[in-house]
Amino acid sequence: MVLDIRFHNSFGDFNLDIDISLPTHGVTACFGPSGSGKTSLLRAISGLMKPKTGHIIFNDQIWQQGEQFLAPHKRSLGYVFQESSLFDHMTVVQNLKYGQGRTSSPLNSQESDHIIDLLGISSLLDRRPDQLSGGERQRVAIARALLPRPKILLMDEPMASLDMGRKREILSLLERLKSELSIPMIYVSHNVDEVTRLADHLIIMDQGKIIQCGSIQHIMTHYNILNNFSDEPFSLLFGQIINPRTDHNLTEIMVAGNVIRMPCLERPQGKRLESGQEIRLHLYAKDISIARCAPQQTSVLNIVQGHIHAIEKTSQDGQCLVRLLLGDVPILARISAFSCDELALRPKMEVYAQIKAVSLVQ
Amino acid sequence: MMGFSEADIMAIWLTFKVACIATLLLLLIGTPIALWLAYTKSKWKGPISAIVALPLVLPPTVLGFYLLIAMGPHGPIGHLTETLGLNYLPFTFSGIVIASVFYSLPFVVQPIQNAIEALGQRPLEVAATLGAGPWDRFFSIILPLSRSGFMTAAILGFAHTVGEFGVILMVGGNIPGVTQVISVQIYDHVEAMEYNEAHWLAAAMVIFSFLVLTLIYSTSRRKKVTGGLYGS
Question: Which residues of B, range 120-159, sit inside 8 Å of A by Cβ?
Fold first, then answer.
């Protein structure tokens, strides 16, 4: 089941050249700097923009091919826009019902109530959009897009206009939506944090072209590309919980054959963790140091063995970035160029990485 | 002292009828034009806007003159009415209604166009992604969200038709009960030195116009998105 997209469109001197097959399950993040054509891609998928040539085929349904063009209102998709896009002349509940009444198989009332509860907007139903905060509006817009039971949900930086607090709140709602609904999503973002948290697949765009695409694991393992957009280099690790809570209140996670221990991740109100559950870990390069022999009698919880793949001397700041491989999982460590010379680090050398801090991606 | 004569009352009633029918036609014709102008990226937008706006700058006699020619036996509209087996339009009630529609078109198109432009594409795009087709989008989104623009358009179209003189005189002449509207009747009174009668009708027009404008300005101040008035 795929979304097959191929088209070329030019806007003045900007050319959008797309040829890609996207899986129609899970979250596909479309990532890239501003002006790279992410929104145009989403508009072409939805039919709000009609590329001059090309095709867009969703599973087996032709959305555009040759002369055929299926109007957006017939495509059965949900679209969440960057800024609040609620209808000002309607109350929240009227907004929610707008799409529901215009589709053949909307969510039933039990399912809608579940979405409304999940997004925490059940107390706002009788309000007008101008009586809502930015975060509330965006939550209503997300619910409104979901209630008609679209076959795919397109989100164009839905959090761009929100402050940090609201962003965090919506991000965790999106995570819950992702785990509770089986609807595929395409999520446009230029925020590394959002992408590492939500995405299963990744498209990276630049100047109207797709420069990388694949599963996030594949891209994070083989390319360092997201780091070009992040202030602080980091690695993303995919692991499995092997013990949610040890006697010392730690959570143990298996990552590439190594056990990583973290302060217990279970929270009083939060969901309980289970063994076998897949999670993502975020490791900042600055939190990792390197030793040539196994450190002993240290308080550092996580020490893993790997080998050096490459060393990049970064600019003038006296630092260097060491790319380590634990099996085939890459980890970035940032150490001083002085230490690097002192330890005579070289590619292929076996070393120990001491992980001083690791955080859960959530 | 005397009030309105029978002829005056006939003129008032006639004016009211012309204005009502013209306003209805104006909304039906003006809305699609306004929609097209608001959303088109065509190179024809400029020329079409100019044509719609022509009555704003042309002397009514010029417009009336060409309409008279066009509706006459040798004009295109005249040919059309002839082929359809209808009478020629000059000096008829239908003739002045049609002339009024041309004359008042900018007053209806522009407020609607402004309101729709202020609305932007976004609400319509949202509606489309929620499954609403073009007609559905017009009635569920455009109409309610630019209601004040449509109100302004209807009121201005009506009031402007009530106030026209030159075009009607050119196209319709001065036939009591058929084409003799208030403004023409006032002219008639003045010509006949019946200043007293002229005063009654003239004062009625001033009061009517004042009330209409008060209505428009007070509603447009309450609402943020409006059609906007010329010069306002």
Answer: 122-123, 125-133, 136, 140-141, 144-145
CB within 8 Å: B126 and A81: yes
Domain match, A129 and A166 both: yes
CB contact under 8 A, A89 and B126: no
CB distance A4 to A56 below 8 Å: yes
Please state whether A76 falls in left (phi above 0), alpha (psi between -120 and 50) or beta.
left
pLDDT for A180: 83
Interface with B, mutate which of A40, A73, A130 (most B CBs under 10 A): A73
One domain for residues A84 and A125:
yes
Q: What confidence score (pLDDT) does residue A105 get?
A: 87
Can you give the pLDDT at residue A49?
92
Total domains in the fold of chain A: 2
Residues A275 and A318 in one domain: yes
Q: CA-nearest residue of chain A to B129? A: A73
Contact at 8 Å (CB) between B115 and B149? yes
- Give me the CATH number covering residue A344: 2.40.50.100
Query: Which of A229, A253, A268 corresponds to the end of one domain?
Result: A229
Residues A77 and A177 in one domain: yes
Distance from CA of A45 to the nearest CA of B (A): 11
- Residue A287 belongs to what domain range? 234-360
Residues of chain B with pLDDT under 70: 1-2, 220-232
ipTM: 0.82
Do A96 and A240 reside in the same domain of the chain?
no
Phi (first) and psi of residue A75, to 5 degrees: -90, -5
Q: Which of A73, A75, A89 sits opposite B144 (nearest CB)?
A: A89
HEC sequence for B155-223? HHHHHHHHCCCHHHHHHHCCCCCCCCCHHHHHHHHHHCCCHHHHHHHHHHHHHHHHHHHHHHHHHHHHC
Two structure tokens written together for A294: 């196994």
B125 CA: distance to closest CA in chain A (Å):
7
Domain final residue, candidates A229, A246, A281: A229
Is residue A270 predicted with pLDDT exceeding 70?
no
Architecture of domain B6-222: Orthogonal Bundle (1.10)
What is the band of A185 on the pLDDT scale with cuts at 50, 70, 90?
very high
Cβ–Cβ of B141/A148 closer than 8 Å? Answer: no
Q: Do B130 and A144 touch (CB under 8 A)?
A: yes
Same domain, A123 and A188: yes
Which tens digits make up the pLDDT trace of A111-163? 999 999 988 899 999 999 999 998 899 999 999 999 999 999 999 998 887 88
